[in-house]
């Protein structure tokens, strides 16, 4: 636990990446594992994660990200895209996965499936999109913590035009929307912000024990 806290203190929202350094395939796989293992409501994971390494695509995304250099200088750009709408198939696919993974007969999962369907399906489309977008932030948090553990730098980013991202990446046709982005790679020695002290609310202000 001591190292975990030290690593969280080490990490920061990297402003300038070293464009010559790339994340090794095995390290990227570990980050993918961390994202895959993220918690999500009901376990449904109502999103898709795009890993962008093509430099030409990154150049287009930079233009849609207000010219921020992290997009093109980072080793990879991770785009968390939430489902903008869903129906029973999302739940049915999940139930099928549970049955296969845990060797459970579908009939024994019907109660859980019906509960999710009756809870989620009646939601208005905008409420569904809001809920799925929130799930992507849980996965983002897991990515940031895992990256710190592996001494990989990351910068979470909301400063981008989602509509342009959706067009560039063909997300509209997939019922997806770019919710949040993370640039990952290795900090540049020229990034002065890495030397800044971390600023957080004091615990007495942040926490209340009841």
From TrEMBL:
<keyword id="KW-0288">FMN</keyword>
<comment type="similarity">
    <text>Belongs to the nitroreductase family.</text>
</comment>
<dbReference type="InterPro" id="IPR000415">
    <property type="entry name" value="Nitroreductase-like"/>
</dbReference>
<keyword id="KW-0560">Oxidoreductase</keyword>
<keyword id="KW-0521">NADP</keyword>
<feature type="region of interest" description="Disordered">
    <location>
        <begin position="191"/>
        <end position="210"/>
    </location>
</feature>
<keyword id="KW-0285">Flavoprotein</keyword>
<dbReference type="InterPro" id="IPR033878">
    <property type="entry name" value="NfsB-like"/>
</dbReference>
<dbReference type="GO" id="GO:0016491">
    <property type="term" value="F:oxidoreductase activity"/>
</dbReference>
<feature type="domain" description="Nitroreductase">
    <location>
        <begin position="9"/>
        <end position="181"/>
    </location>
</feature>
<protein>
    <submittedName>
        <fullName>Nitroreductase</fullName>
    </submittedName>
</protein>
<dbReference type="InterPro" id="IPR029479">
    <property type="entry name" value="Nitroreductase"/>
</dbReference>
<dbReference type="Pfam" id="PF00881">
    <property type="entry name" value="Nitroreductase"/>
</dbReference>
């Amino acid at each position: 636990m001591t190292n975990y806290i030290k690593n969280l203190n080490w990490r920061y929202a990297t402003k300038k990446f070293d464009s010559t350094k790339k994340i090794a395939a095995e390290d990227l796989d570990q980050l993918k594992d961390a994202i895959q293992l993220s918690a999500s409501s009901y376990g449904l994971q109502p999103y898709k994660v795009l890993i962008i390494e093509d430099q030409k695509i990154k150049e287009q995304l930079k233009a849609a990200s207000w010219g921020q250099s992290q997009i093109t200088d980072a080793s990879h750009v991770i785009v968390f895209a939430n489902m903008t709408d869903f129906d029973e198939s999302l739940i049915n696919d999940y139930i099928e996965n549970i049955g296969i993974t845990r060797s459970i007969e579908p009939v024994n999962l019907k109660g859980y499936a019906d509960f999710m369907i009756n809870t989620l399906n009646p939601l208005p489309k905008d409420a569904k999109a809001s809920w799925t977008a929130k799930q992507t932030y849980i996965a983002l948090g897991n990515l940031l913590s895992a990256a710190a553990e592996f001494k990989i730098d990351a910068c979470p980013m909301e400063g981008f035009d989602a509509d342009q991202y959706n067009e560039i990446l063909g997300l509209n046709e997939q019922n997806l929307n770019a919710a949040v982005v993370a640039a990952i790679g290795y900090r540049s020695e020229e990034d002065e912000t890495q030397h800044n002290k971390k600023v957080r609310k004091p615990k007495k202000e942040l926490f209340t024990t009841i």
